[in-house]
Amino acid sequence: MNESQVTMIDASSAQGFHLEAGSTLRVINSMGSQVVGTWAFARSSMNEFMSMEHSRIHSSSSKPKIGTVFYTNAHEPILELTADRSPGVHDWYLAACNQQRYELLGHAEEHANCADNLHSALADLGHSLSFVPCPLNLFENVSLLFGGSMEIKQPVAMPGDYVWLKALIDCLVVLSACPQDILPTNGPDLTPRSIEVEIDQPGG
Ligand SMILES: [Zn+2]
Fold it and tell me: How far is CA 125 from the centre of its chain?
């Protein structure tokens, strides 16, 4: 019998979750238009992490979709996108936003960002990291344009849309409700929103 729990992650913040192999994690875009930076780390070592570069090697697709398996930097399967009740628009190319990104966008003051959110969520669970892997940017709408350029567009995810991610090994997953409020990354109203997470652990 499975045990399910639902957690809300406030707008512009992040939280980490320990997942056993076989667990599933549902990332719910409760209010729509919210991008979710997603990282995963092997429980055996924080130096083994879900890597978009390595995952793309094993995929024949230009973007994540149902059935996509994400790999670590040691080429081990760590997460699988098992269901997608959204338009299926996600990004696996762009770096997490950080303080420097906002400064370059003209915001000189301190600004919440996905990189700091990751470090904070890891610290809450007793971990630290000296770098920020490229995240899986769930619901981020990055268009590949003719000629090879890319453009960040407003998300097409609607309220209540969700994806399921299955843990293929014991891992630690961190989700960041992206604080971007200068570009339309999180919608044309430039308003970050909260998300919800539901976890089903095998065996309860
Ligand atoms: Zn962000």
Answer: 18
Measured on CA atoms in the order 196, 123, 103, 110, is the torsion positive or negative?
positive
Give SS3 for 123.
helix
Contacts of 16 (CB under 8 A, 6+ apart): 121, 122, 124, 125, 172, 173, 174, 175
Q: What is the spatial distance between Cα 90 and Cα 64, in angstroms, rounded to a whole number?
A: 6
Q: Where are the domains of the chain?
A: 3-201
Position 40 scores a pLDDT of 98
Q: What is the pLDDT of residues 34-45, one digit of tens each?
A: 999 999 999 999
pTM of model > 0.70: yes
Per-residue model confidence (pLDDT) at position 204: 57
Ligand 1 center to 10 CA (angstroms): 14
The CA 141 to ligand 1 mean position distance, Å, reads 13
